[in-house]
Design brief:
- This protein has one domain (6-141): ACP-like (Non-ribosomal Peptide Synthetase Peptidyl Carrier Protein, Chain A, Orthogonal Bundle).
- The chain starts with 5 loop residues before the first helix and ends with a helix.
- The protein is mostly helical.
- 62% of the residues lie in helices and 0% in strands.
């Protein structure tokens, strides 16, 4: 089972930002604005593609454009990875239930069905969750 901590996400995002040829800083903090550290929209897309590969998630271009700070990216990745894990757990439970039903009903189980190889989830849900979290933080500081 792969578990990640907030620090893991921060380290990966920081490393990807620092590897960008446009970025001329020595360290990254989560409170930094991407525009202040020379991460433009093309670089955001490049970082997003690397994160998709690293965490086996999908990030829409629209979601990428919404990221304004390092913390936005870290929060998004955390939510996306957790959503992927939840979907995997639900699908695994569904497969187990289906197999158990087939055994209990004395019907042959069709084990030759291919499993879904590329899992995806609705990135709009993640974007909505991030936006709600931002609003909650903003209302708490106001």
């Amino acid at each position: 089972m792969n578990t990640h901590t907030d620090n893991d996400y921060e380290q990966v995002v920081s490393r990807l930002i620092l590897e960008s040829p446009q970025v001329k800083i020595k360290s990254v903090a989560t409170d930094m604005l991407l525009s202040d550290i020379s991460v433009d929209s093309l670089e955001k897309l490049s970082i997003a593609m690397d994160l998709e590969e690293a965490y086996d998630i999908e990030i829409s271009d629209d979601d990428v454009e919404q990221h304004e700070s390092v913390a936005d990216i870290v929060g998004y990745i955390k939510l996306a990875v957790n959503a992927r894990k939840d979907i995997s757990d639900i699908e695994a439970a569904g497969i187990e239930a289906t197999d158990a039903e087939a055994v209990n009903s004395n019907e042959p189980s069709d084990t030759n069905e291919p499993l879904q190889e590329n899992m995806s989830f609705d990135t709009d849900d993640i974007a909505d969750a991030i936006e709600a979290e931002k609003k909650a933080k903003h209302s708490n500081t106001a």
